[in-house]
Amino acid sequence: MNTQKVEFENAKGEKLVGRLELPVDQHPHNFALFAHCFTCSKNLLAVKNISRSLTANGFAVLRFDFTGLGESEGDFADTNFSGNVEDLVAAADYLKENYTAPTLLIGHSLGGAATIFAAADIKSVNALVTIGAPANPVHVRHLLKSGLEEIESKGEAVVNLSGRDFKIKKQFLDDLETKSLATTAKSLRKPLLIMHSPQDDTVSIKNAEEIYVAAHHPKSFVSLDGADHLLSNKEDSRYVGEVIAGWAKRYLTIAAKVDSSLTSKHQVAASLDQEDGFTTQMKVGSHYMVADEPIDFGGNDFGPSPYELVSAGLSACTAMTVQMYARHKGWPLENIEVHTSYSKSHAQDCANCEDDRSKIDTFHREIKLSGNLDTQQKDKMMQIADKCPVHRTLHSATQVISTLIE
Fold it and tell me: What's the chain's average pLDDT?
């Protein structure tokens, strides 16, 4: 997992703190922005699980604390729903200035309502998702029922929410009254995925219906049957992340991990742009993959190194050759494992590529043979391992003929 702590300012100049999660095996194809639920934080387990499911599918996800919550500065008592929307816009601006503008907005509970309002002000957004969202922000009033009378009479009250005390001021309620989600959803012309649990006893599923009716197509609904409002079961939150990833790819531009234009008369083609460091796009036969160097050598570690690829060829060829021989002989070789490593690092060799003086290239190969085999059979298969085509190539005189393509 690749997670970075980020900080940016809201409209009032207060510092907001978030976590930017990035894919571990590729550059992100899209950036997503996550809005957490009312009085929650970026560290809610469900938020983490959804984010990690998305990064596993190539997305980068920024989850952050709204003003006055978690690690972010500001007084929660002075915030309101409009402020949450402004925080989302500030987060989108931060991504645009420092990474890539977000194309996907995701909001949980009241954060879901905030994403619908924020989508109108974040031009880069091409799709958005609500999870257990209220059909109108004013729905939050029922969560504050224990202090509503005091808020109305005294202008503020301390309300216990999920075991924690929060000061709520009348301006918070007044701001909610000015927001019409139905009107905003009707004017929204962006793909919308609505996710809600029929068993949600905090925000009833009737809210999902109201949002769906108000919104224009393309719109989708997914029932989170059996889940609670906070998606406290990790299987539910992981499922949500996987569904969002699959759905969003229909509406977002997903850059291929590799350059599909790599055509060649050769079995293998590699392409490397100036700004990509060591991360090399490859076409290997009819398959696409990435080669790279470890982070210690200045790479991104998005794929195997060149010598690891050579070692992989030796391992695969050894396994194929020995298993083929065993089948021909009718020997009970149930499984063969071949573990191979190379004794020198590629970066050290390339530090002086023009020097013809060579070192000893050593491949360490360990072979495990499983099955009801006797000693004579095992010894013979070890001999056959040394006769696999790649092994023989590595031991023979070879030449590389290079031609410049104009």
Answer: 89
The amino acid at residue 217 is H
Is the pLDDT score of 347 beyond 50? Answer: no
Place of tokens 């880069």: 124
C-alpha 152/C-alpha 178 separation (Å) is 16
Cα 95 from chain centroid (whole Å): 15
* Token pair of 332 as six digits: 């009970």
What does the pLDDT look like over 168-225, one tens digit per residue? 888 887 877 777 777 888 888 899 999 999 999 999 999 999 999 999 999 999 999 9
Is residue 4 within a helix (H) or strand (E), and if so which, with residue range? strand 2-9
Helix (H) or strand (E) holding 10: none
* Exposure letters 29-52 (e unless 16+ CB within 10 A, then b): bbbbbbbbbbbbbbebebbbbbbb
> In percent, how much of the chain has pLDDT > 90?
63
* Separation of alpha carbons 35 and 42, rounded Å: 8
Q: What is the number of alpha carbons within 13 Å of residue 120 lying toward its C-beta?
A: 13
Instruction: State if pTM tops 0.85.
Output: no
Distance in angstroms (rounded) separating the CA atoms of residues 216 and 218: 6
Q: What angle do CA 236, 84, 222 make, to 5 degrees?
A: 30
Question: What does the pLDDT look like over 300-331, one tens digit per residue?
Answer: 888 899 999 999 999 999 999 999 999 999 99
Return the minimum-mean-pLDDT range out of 99-103, 287-291, 304-308, 351-355: 351-355
- Nearest alpha carbon to residue 110 among 44, 176, 58: 176
Determine the 3-state secondary structure of 263 from DSSP. Answer: coil
| Exposure string over 321-337, b if 16+ CB within 10 A, otherwise e | bbbebbeeeebebeebe
Question: How long is the chain?
Answer: 406
Please compute the mean of the pLDDT values over residues 384-394 and round it to a whole number.
94
β-sheet bridge partners, residue 156: 169
Which phi and psi (to 5°) does residue 289 adopt? -155, 180
Token duo for residue 260: 């599909």
Q: How far apart are CA 83 and CA 175, in angstroms?
A: 10
CA dist 72 → 31, 36, 315 (Å): 21, 13, 51
Spatial CB neighbours of 72, under 8 Å, sequence gap ≥ 6: 14, 15, 16, 17, 64, 65, 66
Q: What is the pLDDT of residues 42-64, one digit of tens each?
A: 999 999 999 999 998 999 999 99
